[in-house]
Structures are given as structure tokens and as C-alpha cells.
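Thread amino acids onto this structure.
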């Protein structure tokens, strides 16, 4: 089968590499390789694309400039652009592929794989209407509800179905995830298991993402995975966590969210600048002997999802309330699934007061060797 992967984040690339390395999508012709599209919207995307080419896992590696409809000046211009791109998908792809467009548009694919149903993916599926659509792991978002319907409006999906003569191109035939036993996704009735990361695959992954042999040592017992302090309550929560952890600062390392703007809240702690991809860093040290503190970062779930490791977890969402609604309900559902999957569910902590928070941290630091 002629297969095309579409990726917009490093984690999606990691998943696509895992699938291609392990020949998850079979080829009809001998030596036929899949193509991959990398959206140039994250740091070092160009360098990573070049290194993907060097692996020779893929036939073609395309680096494109994905259109961001958020940049439109008003709602009308955004709606018009989306409608135009839906009706004329070739126009959108030509714009994104620049001089490569003519050769690319001649390609026909039997399978298209992505983690997110973007407007570009919709265009690809419209131009390859007979292609099978498969979705792949995108972290926590892939494990509950319907990821596509959370980010795409009902009106848009109805318009897209009409454009495709009644075919629901947004509905994948299957979803591949790292932890099938924990997946409650409504994206597809067919949930399939991805291979675990082998040592051979990790060598390829480290090469692709340009990881050196020098890694943060994470000698501290506590890892604080921060959130984005983009509201008053979240900012207050960040400072409160910082105040509560200051007395334990020698035992705490902070890994800041890439979009976090606050600086002074973390001045008393050693900070990891995130140069090494978290998903790969976890393969280099014994995370199960750590306590991860977070509001609700996907990174807290990653050890279990990718490596079946079970660090202690302390969630602060009862101290820093998340907005009520279906997304909170879905998140709480995933936490419950995680507890069921943990060998020691009592290692997942949810303090309801700051005194309880302090007690949990103090006990863990002082008695780590006894309680592990």
C-alpha cells in the first residue's frame, strides 16, 4: 500500500517513526516505502526532517508550511478561508508545498495516517477519496472521547461530508495507541496496539531528534511538570506550588511547559530547559523512583503509556480547579483508568488541601527508600 504520514509535533513524528520502523502499514510492492509530511510549526522541524531523510525509512520527506486559520483578522475571513480550502483542497496543498506541489499532487495514496484531523489532512483525504484513514497516538487526547469532534465544529464536518459526496472522511478505520488497555477513545471501534520502543528503535529516534549522549541527570526526587499560567487562577496556583516546594528546593527539579511565560516563580529551583525530548529522556533514568507533581500534564501519563513505568504522581487539580465541563470529566476518567492500570494505585495522589500537599511531598522525600 502507498502510505502517507502527516505530523505536526515531535511526539507525532516519534509515533510515525515507530510505526514505519516496525512495518505496521504493510507495503504491496517490494521495497515500497511510505512518504511523510512534517509541518514546519515546531522548533527544529527542518533539521529533524533532514535527519528523517537520512534514516531512509521513508521514500519522500516533505516539509510544509501549514496554514494557521487563527491568524485571520476576523471570523468572516477565517470562515471564508476554511470553506475555500474545503472546496478546493488542491489549492491549499499547492500553497503549503510551494514548488513541490506539482510532483506531490500526482501522488495517490491508499492509506493516510495522522494524529489530528487538520484542514490539511482533510484536503489530503478529499484528493485521495478512496484512501483508508488511520489515526495514531497523540498522547492523552487520543485516549478519551472524540478528538476530532472536540476541535472541529459540527458545521464544518457536515460541509466536508457534503464536499466528499456523503463520505465521512474524518472517521478513521482504526486508531493505534501505545496503551490499548487504557484507551477509551470514541474515534474508532478498532483500537490497535503499537509496538513498545525497542533499543534498536530508540537509537534511530535519538538520531532523528538530534539527542546527544549528555542528558539531565535528574538526581532530585521530585519533578515538577509545570502548566501554562495563562489565567489568574493558574498563575496563583503556580506561585502556591512554588511556595509549598521552596523548603524542598534541593530535592526538586522543574521541567517547564514550553509555552510557560512565568520566570520568577521558578527562581528557587533547578530548571530543565526541555532540550531533551521528555518521551526519550524517560528511557535514560529510573522514573519509577520519582514523584511527578503536575496540574494535569500529559507528561505525567507518558511513563506508563510509553514504558509501562509507574512513578509516583501528585495531581494538583483539586487545589487549582480546572474549568468544569466535558473535558474535565474526560480528564478525570483518564486518571481513573490510570489508577486501574497502576500496580500500586495508591501511588497516585490527589491532595485536597495545601497541608495535605505538603504532607505527601514531605513523606515522599523523607521516606522514599522505604515506600518504593
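Threaded sequence (372 positions):
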Amino acid at each position: 500500500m502507498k502510505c502517507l504520514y502527516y505530523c505536526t509535533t515531535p511526539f507525532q513524528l516519534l509515533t510515525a517513526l515507530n510505526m514505519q520502523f516496525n512495518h505496521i502499514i504493510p507495503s504491496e510492492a517490494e521495497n515500497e516505502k511510505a512518504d511523510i509530511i512534517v509541518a514546519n510549526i515546531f522548533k527544529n522541524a527542518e533539521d529533524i526532517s533532514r535527519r528523517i531523510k537520512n534514516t531512509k525509512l521513508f521514500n519522500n520527506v516533505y516539509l510544509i508550511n501549514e496554514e494557521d486559520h487563527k491568524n485571520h483578522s476576523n471570523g468572516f475571513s477565517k470562515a471564508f478561508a476554511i470553506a475555500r480550502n474545503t472546496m478546493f483542497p488542491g489549492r491549499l496543498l499547492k500553497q503549503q508545498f510551494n514548488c513541490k506541489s506539482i510532483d506531490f499532487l500526482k501522488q495517490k495514496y491508499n492509506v493516510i495516517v495522522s494524529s489530528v484531523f487538520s484542514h490539511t489532512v482533510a484536503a489530503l483525504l478529499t484528493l485521495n477519496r478512496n484512501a483508508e484513514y488511520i489515526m495514531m497516538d497523540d498522547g492523552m487526547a487520543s485516549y478519551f472521547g472524540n478528538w476530532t469532534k472536540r476541535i472541529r465544529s459540527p458545521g464544518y464536518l457536515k460541509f466536508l461530508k457534503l464536499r466528499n459526496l456523503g463520505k465521512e472522511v474524518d472517521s478513521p478505520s482504526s486508531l493505534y495507541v501505545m496503551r490499548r488497555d487504557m484507551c477509551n477513545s470514541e474515534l474508532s471501534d478498532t483500537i490497535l496496539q503499537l509496538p513498545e520502543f525497542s533499543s534498536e528503535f530508540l537509537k534511530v529516534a535519538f538520531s532523528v531528534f538530534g539527542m546527544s549522549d549528555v542528558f539531565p541527570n535528574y538526581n532530585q526526587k521530585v519533578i515538577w511538570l509545570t502548566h501554562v499560567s495563562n489565567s489568574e487562577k493558574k498563575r496563583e496556583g503556580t506561585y502556591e506550588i512554588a511556595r509549598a516546594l521552596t523548603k524542598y528546593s534541593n530535592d526538586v527539579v522543574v521541567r517547564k511547559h514550553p509555552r510557560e511565560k512565568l520566570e520568577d516563580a521558578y527562581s528557587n529551583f533547578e530548571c530543565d530547559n526541555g532540550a531533551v525530548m521528555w518521551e526519550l529522556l524517560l528511557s535514560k533514568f529510573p522514573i519509577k523512583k520519582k514523584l511527578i507533581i503536575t496540574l494535569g500534564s500529559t507528561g505525567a501519563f507518558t511513563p506508563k503509556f510509553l514504558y509501562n513505568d509507574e512513578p509516583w504522581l501528585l495531581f494538583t487539580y483539586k487545589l487549582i480547579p480546572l474549568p468544569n465541563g466535558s473535558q474535565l470529566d474526560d480528564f478525570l476518567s483518564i486518571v481513573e483508568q490510570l489508577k486501574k492500570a497502576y500496580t500500586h494505585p495508591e501511588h497516585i495522589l490527589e491532595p485536597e488541601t495545601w497541608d495535605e500537599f505538603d504532607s505527601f511531598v514531605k513523606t515522599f522525600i523523607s521516606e522514599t527508600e522505604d515506600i518504593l
